[in-house]
Amino acid sequence: MNKMEAGGRDGIGAMFDSISGTYDLLNHGLSFNIDKRWRRKAVRMLAPCGELLDVAVGTGDLAFEIIRQGKAEHVTGADLSVEMMRIGREKARARNMSERVSFEEASALSLPYADGRFDAVTCAFGVRNFSDREAGLKEMRRVLSPGGQLLVLEFSHPSVPLFRGLYNMYFNHLLPFVGGLVSGNREAYRYLNRSVREFPEGEGFLELLRSTGFVRTEQRRLSFGIVTIYMATK
């Protein structure tokens, strides 16, 4: 679950501010720490580069993994949630990564960066939160240098019927209940469920990437299809 759209400080950013204190605990706990493996596998698919933009950076887990694997010289993290990024900055200091990872308040639909500034753009569990996905993808393509790589990590749905049924029971009922109870914001975790259901996963998202100008699109499903890594090139 991450958080970037045109709603600004009074919308999606404020919602994630409200759950920032328990966000990492719930992210890792509710996924049984498998989310860390998903990020590691996604980052391995990146080619090493200089400047990288991580959209919907949140508390910085993907950005730190990018630096840890040596996939970028510097990561600029953009997000609407100032509280999530405050925690991210604290984590960066604890990891001695403050000079390698920066956090900036910005909307994915209007990125405050020059055309072609970044060698790569990433977004983990954030694209589904864009109020206008096409506009957000066009912005990410705009700030990419020619030939630059895009990586998106998003939730999807298992293809195996039995596992899909168990997953839906957990995702539709247990996760919103526990997430709401621990965070104190039940609506935030109901929103997570809705946003995943409404996301155009698989070939639908690949077609959206192509329609916004990306080429060499591909996908890789992980954990029986619970999440999908999407790659594309400007």
How would you describe what is shown here?
- By secondary structure, the protein is α/β, with parallel strands linked by helices.
- The chain has one domain: Vaccinia Virus protein VP39 (Rossmann fold, 3-Layer(aba) Sandwich).
- 45% of the residues lie in helices and 23% in strands.
- It contains nine helices and seven strands.
- It has a seven-stranded mixed beta sheet, sandwiched between helices.
- α2 runs antiparallel to α7, α3 crosses α4 and α7 runs antiparallel to α8.
- The chain is globular.
Task: Briefly note the CATH topology name.
Answer: Rossmann fold
Shape by Cα distribution:
globular
CATH level-two architecture: 3-Layer(aba) Sandwich
Total number of β-strand segments? Answer: 7
State the share of residues found in helices, binned by percent: 40-55%
Q: How would you concisely characterize the structure shown here?
A:
This protein has 234 residues and is α/β, with parallel strands linked by helices.
What would the keywords be for this entry?
single chain, 234 residues, alpha/beta, Rossmann fold, 9 helices, 7 strands, 23% strand, globular, disordered N terminus
Any chance you could write out the topology, listing elements then pairs?
Layout: H1 12-18, H2 20-30, H3 34-44, E1 49-55, H4 61-68, E2 72-79, H5 82-94, E3 101-105, E4 118-124, H6 133-142, E5 144-155, H7 161-183, H8 186-198, H9 203-211, E6 215-222, E7 227-233
Parallel strand pairs: 1-2, 1-4, 2-3, 4-5
Antiparallel strand pairs: 5-7, 6-7
Helix pairs in contact: 2-7, 3-4, 7-8
